[in-house]
Fold these 2 entries.
Entry 1:
Amino acid sequence: MKRSLLKNLLFLLLLGINCIAVGAQDTQQLPETSYGPAIDPAKGYLVAEIDERLYWVTDGLYNAMFLVYDEGVIAVDAPPTIGQNYLKAIAEVTEKPVTHLVYSHSHTDHIGAAGLFPKGIEIVAHEDTKAILERRKDPRRPIPTKVFEKNHEIVLGDQLLRLTYHGKNHIEGNIFIHAPKQKVLMLVDVIFPGWVPFKNLGIAEDVPGYMEAHDIALDYDFETFIAGHVTRLGNRADVEVSKAFVTDLKETAQQAFGKVDFMKSAQETGFEDKWKMYNTYFEKVVDVATAEMKKKWDGKLGGIDTYLRDDVWAMCESLSVDF
Ligand SMILES: [Zn+2]
């Protein structure tokens, strides 16, 4: 019952997103860069080869990838919104069985459909991801069977996937997944090609690490970028744009703290209710930074009116405690 309710909600969400996208196209509310390839609504997903038997699969909100080698398939992530369609997508291009599954990180929305794949396959993840999943005890997210600390290579037939952990960013255990032959880099929930980050910088647990991840990504040799979200594949330019956005966000937020007079704000709220005093001041700083950022970024990235203020909030919060 619970599961079918969740499925219905996800379906409605996807349907809603498609409707919004169509409506937005009419009213020019989203920039061109936010749109991805059309997805056949009857199928609900799209699968396409990037290069040399490396495929991406998307439902227009989530994306994952899989690599076909001579005896099987290595899947990377298993988002529940794609769910059963993941198996259909793989079956469209190969009859070979899935033998390996890589978890980018521990979050359910990216790996919660892992149970789709045959029992007994090798599940590879960072050791921190395994530690988190052991605590979660979630049957939808089986415990990894192979973990690593810094690097791990999956070499099968003539295919290679390089997994590397560069430290905490979005969450501990979130890894960089590189297919050197295909020049593809996958990093989930950090860069959102064509869009501002999801709420609160994609729910970044470590904002300095989140920012650093951009430079680490750009050090890789890649042409195609798979972000886990949103509508399309990314490229180096998308990573550069995201880096410019978060760099600007940090500077703008820093300046905003200097533009709002704390004592003046506190005199308005009074000093007795400490939370109100602080929060009112903080809200004013966030408002100033959001207005500045909107002036500079409106029309360049999608989702500004939805998540820009939350992204600013997360940066202001991080500036208060991390930097
Ligand atoms: Zn995540």
Entry 2:
Amino acid sequence: MSLFTRIIFAAVGSLLKPVKTTIKGKWGEGKVAHILSRLPEDEYKVINDVIIQTNGYTSQIDHIVVSIYGIFVVETKNYSGWITGFENSKQWTQNIYGEKQSFYNPIKQNKSHILALKNEIYIIKDNFIPIIAFSDDCSLKVETETPVIYLSQILGEIKRHTEVKFDKTQLDGIVERIKALNIDSPEMRQQHADEIRYNKQRTEEKLRQGICPRCGAYLVLRQGRFGKFYGCSNYPRCHYTHSE
Ligand SMILES: [Zn+2]
């Protein structure tokens, strides 16, 4: 590759970067897994990207750390901008220079994952520890009881828990049970991806029809501090907003 081509690539790359960070999503595979792999292996067993199915629903869990101190269920969000939300609100908001996007409260998401796991591996709820970690690029403005932290704090947060809950033999048993539950066949993974795509299509369809995807009321164009946006006509009962 010539120097010129490399400069072009670098320039295009830096142009794309701000756009890319607004896309809500996952880290490149392995980033968080790599950080978690620094935990001492004899006390912490890390299982990444677990898909389990309970009562017909599939749950995708980013990372599970099974340790003698409890089972950490980790939800990670690679978002930038300002993040606002409360423990029990249904939606949280990502705000990038006034561009608002709502997303499902990750605490609720995490709770449903813990519930699914608890029912399948027969471990009491108290032995699960939720952790929600956001990118250090964002600014967390959330008010929660459940720990919502930056990715750089994740090892410290895990190591904060020092009360022993399981012995090492139990640890191996739990890991085996989770691994047995994990859907890792390509066919089942495809089905899970299809389900997500179907839900996304349904949301987009409703937006095209001017209908609130959350409650079914009409959306109305409103003028906010940072520009125009679509809000639910059912406000304040429904807080759904959408900006193009
Ligand atoms: Zn609504």
